[in-house]
Specification:
CATH class: Mainly Beta
Order of helices and strands: EHEHEEEEEHEEH
CATH architecture: Beta Barrel
Shape: globular
Structural class: alpha+beta
Strand order of the largest sheet: 1-8-9-2-7-5-4
Helix content: 25-40%
Number of domains: 1
Largest sheet: 7 strands, antiparallel
Distance between the termini: 45 Å
Number of strands: 9
Radius of gyration: 19 Å
CATH superfamily: Small protein B
CATH topology: Small Protein B, Chain: A
Protein backbone atom coordinates (compact mmCIF):
# COMPACT_ATOMS: atom_id res chain seq x y z
CA UNK A 1 0.00 0.00 0.00
CA UNK A 2 1.19 3.50 -0.73
CA UNK A 3 1.86 6.00 2.02
CA UNK A 4 1.32 9.75 1.73
CA UNK A 5 3.16 11.66 4.44
CA UNK A 6 1.15 14.57 5.85
CA UNK A 7 3.24 15.97 8.70
CA UNK A 8 6.45 15.09 10.53
CA UNK A 9 7.57 16.08 14.01
CA UNK A 10 11.20 16.98 13.20
CA UNK A 11 12.03 18.23 16.67
CA UNK A 12 11.17 14.84 18.20
CA UNK A 13 14.18 13.12 16.62
CA UNK A 14 16.44 15.93 17.84
CA UNK A 15 15.07 16.31 21.38
CA UNK A 16 14.46 12.63 22.22
CA UNK A 17 16.14 9.25 22.03
CA UNK A 18 13.70 6.88 20.32
CA UNK A 19 13.44 3.38 21.82
CA UNK A 20 10.41 1.88 20.07
CA UNK A 21 7.96 3.12 17.46
CA UNK A 22 4.68 1.76 16.19
CA UNK A 23 1.81 2.64 13.90
CA UNK A 24 -1.60 3.58 15.29
CA UNK A 25 -4.88 4.67 13.82
CA UNK A 26 -6.32 8.01 14.91
CA UNK A 27 -9.94 8.84 15.61
CA UNK A 28 -10.97 11.85 13.52
CA UNK A 29 -14.29 13.68 13.42
CA UNK A 30 -16.15 15.66 10.80
CA UNK A 31 -14.02 17.51 8.31
CA UNK A 32 -10.66 16.71 9.94
CA UNK A 33 -9.86 14.14 7.26
CA UNK A 34 -10.31 16.74 4.51
CA UNK A 35 -8.04 19.15 6.39
CA UNK A 36 -5.42 16.40 6.74
CA UNK A 37 -5.63 15.60 3.03
CA UNK A 38 -4.94 19.26 2.25
CA UNK A 39 -1.89 19.10 4.56
CA UNK A 40 -3.06 21.68 7.08
CA UNK A 41 -1.64 20.23 10.26
CA UNK A 42 1.16 20.91 12.73
CA UNK A 43 2.74 18.49 15.19
CA UNK A 44 5.07 20.76 17.15
CA UNK A 45 4.76 20.25 20.92
CA UNK A 46 2.46 17.24 20.48
CA UNK A 47 2.57 14.27 22.84
CA UNK A 48 0.56 11.17 23.71
CA UNK A 49 -0.53 10.09 27.16
CA UNK A 50 -2.57 7.21 28.59
CA UNK A 51 -5.94 8.09 30.09
CA UNK A 52 -7.44 5.09 31.80
CA UNK A 53 -7.23 2.14 29.41
CA UNK A 54 -6.89 4.31 26.30
CA UNK A 55 -4.14 6.45 24.81
CA UNK A 56 -4.82 9.96 23.57
CA UNK A 57 -2.66 12.32 21.53
CA UNK A 58 -2.62 16.01 22.50
CA UNK A 59 -1.67 19.27 20.75
CA UNK A 60 -1.80 18.06 17.15
CA UNK A 61 -3.20 21.11 15.39
CA UNK A 62 -5.47 20.19 12.48
CA UNK A 63 -6.75 23.43 10.97
CA UNK A 64 -10.51 23.72 10.45
CA UNK A 65 -11.60 22.83 6.93
CA UNK A 66 -12.08 26.11 5.05
CA UNK A 67 -15.19 24.90 3.21
CA UNK A 68 -16.62 23.31 6.36
CA UNK A 69 -19.57 24.42 8.38
CA UNK A 70 -20.57 24.01 12.01
CA UNK A 71 -19.24 20.41 11.84
CA UNK A 72 -15.70 21.77 12.28
CA UNK A 73 -14.24 20.77 15.64
CA UNK A 74 -11.61 22.28 17.95
CA UNK A 75 -8.25 22.21 16.10
CA UNK A 76 -6.21 21.15 19.17
CA UNK A 77 -8.62 18.69 20.80
CA UNK A 78 -7.34 15.44 22.23
CA UNK A 79 -7.68 12.54 19.79
CA UNK A 80 -7.93 8.87 20.64
CA UNK A 81 -5.32 6.50 19.22
CA UNK A 82 -6.65 3.21 17.87
CA UNK A 83 -4.45 0.38 19.13
CA UNK A 84 -4.85 -3.24 20.17
CA UNK A 85 -5.37 -3.86 23.89
CA UNK A 86 -2.01 -5.64 24.25
CA UNK A 87 -0.21 -2.72 22.57
CA UNK A 88 -1.90 -0.27 24.92
CA UNK A 89 -0.88 -2.31 27.96
CA UNK A 90 2.75 -2.51 26.85
CA UNK A 91 2.89 1.23 26.08
CA UNK A 92 1.38 2.11 29.47
CA UNK A 93 3.98 -0.14 31.15
CA UNK A 94 6.84 1.57 29.26
CA UNK A 95 5.57 5.09 29.96
CA UNK A 96 5.14 4.36 33.67
CA UNK A 97 8.92 3.93 33.91
CA UNK A 98 10.78 7.07 34.93
CA UNK A 99 11.78 9.38 32.08
CA UNK A 100 9.83 7.71 29.26
CA UNK A 101 7.05 9.37 27.31
CA UNK A 102 5.07 8.92 24.08
CA UNK A 103 5.59 11.29 21.18
CA UNK A 104 3.96 11.22 17.73
CA UNK A 105 6.59 11.25 14.99
CA UNK A 106 4.47 11.58 11.85
CA UNK A 107 0.96 11.51 10.41
CA UNK A 108 0.33 9.84 7.07
CA UNK A 109 -2.31 8.13 4.98
CA UNK A 110 -1.85 4.42 4.39
CA UNK A 111 -4.36 2.91 2.01
CA UNK A 112 -6.70 5.87 2.51
CA UNK A 113 -6.67 5.57 6.31
CA UNK A 114 -5.02 8.18 8.56
CA UNK A 115 -2.22 6.72 10.68
CA UNK A 116 0.09 8.15 13.34
CA UNK A 117 3.58 6.85 14.05
CA UNK A 118 4.14 7.10 17.81
CA UNK A 119 7.33 6.34 19.68
CA UNK A 120 8.43 5.57 23.22
CA UNK A 121 11.12 8.17 23.86
CA UNK A 122 13.38 9.56 26.56
CA UNK A 123 14.54 13.17 26.59
CA UNK A 124 18.10 13.95 25.54
CA UNK A 125 20.41 16.03 27.68
CA UNK A 126 22.12 19.08 26.17
CA UNK A 127 25.43 17.25 25.68
CA UNK A 128 23.61 14.42 23.82
CA UNK A 129 22.22 16.97 21.38
CA UNK A 130 25.69 18.43 20.78
CA UNK A 131 27.04 14.93 20.14
CA UNK A 132 24.30 14.27 17.58
CA UNK A 133 25.13 17.52 15.77
CA UNK A 134 28.84 16.58 15.67
CA UNK A 135 28.06 13.16 14.18
CA UNK A 136 25.76 14.70 11.58
CA UNK A 137 28.42 17.23 10.57
CA UNK A 138 31.07 14.50 10.35
CA UNK A 139 28.85 12.38 8.07
CA UNK A 140 28.19 15.40 5.88
CA UNK A 141 31.91 16.15 5.56
CA UNK A 142 32.69 12.51 4.68
CA UNK A 143 30.01 12.43 1.99
CA UNK A 144 31.30 15.72 0.53
CA UNK A 145 34.87 14.37 0.45
CA UNK A 146 33.77 11.18 -1.30
CA UNK A 147 31.69 13.17 -3.80
CA UNK A 148 34.59 15.57 -4.54
CA UNK A 149 37.10 12.74 -4.89
CA UNK A 150 34.96 11.03 -7.56
CA UNK A 151 34.93 14.15 -9.76
CA UNK A 152 37.79 14.68 -12.25
CA UNK A 153 39.72 17.92 -11.76
Amino acid sequence: MSEKNIATNRQARYNYTIFESLEAGIELKGTEVKSLRSGKTSMSESFAHPDGKEIFVYNIHISPYEFGNRANVDPKRKRKLLLHRAQIRSLIARVSQKGFTLVPLSIYFKGGIAKVEIAVVKGKQHFDKREAIKKKDARREISRAIKDKGQPS
